[in-house]
Amino acid sequence: MSERVEHTVQSLLAVDLGIRTGLALYERTGRMVWYRSQNFGSAARLRRGVHGLLEELPDLAWLIIEGGGPLADIWEREASQRHIRVRQIGAEEWRDTLFYPRQQRSGPKAKQSAKEIARQVIEWSEAPRPTSLRHDAAEAILIGLWGVIEIGWLKDPPDGLRH
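Above: the chain's sequence. Below: its structure in token form.
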């Protein structure tokens, strides 16, 4: 008689909320698997898109969303139907962990800093390098990095980043 071993691969999806949404998927090791920017075009298309995306991620354990309002409600509703844990945050939470104060003095400076640090995370994760990196995808990468540290999948940011 053979013993069946259950192996659960968990993942975390980070979302920079908007009609144009930044997304980054992290695995249990704390490394990023993929990232992208997706323009849903409308709330109705976002609703359908979120449903389809979460269907494609059966091992999703966590959803970290930066932002709020009706668009966040769409993500939260879909996640709750799948028993996915959700954490809704503001930009200041992940920025305070990953940025020095000088890197977030203004909106444009924070977006530039996000792109620079996100490129380091891409390299550290050995994910494909982008030809161009939109600020929403860069921020999703950092939201995800903050998330895997916050839930304990990664002890600290990779060497060379903020802390």
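Residues 1-7 have pLDDT under 50 and may be disordered.
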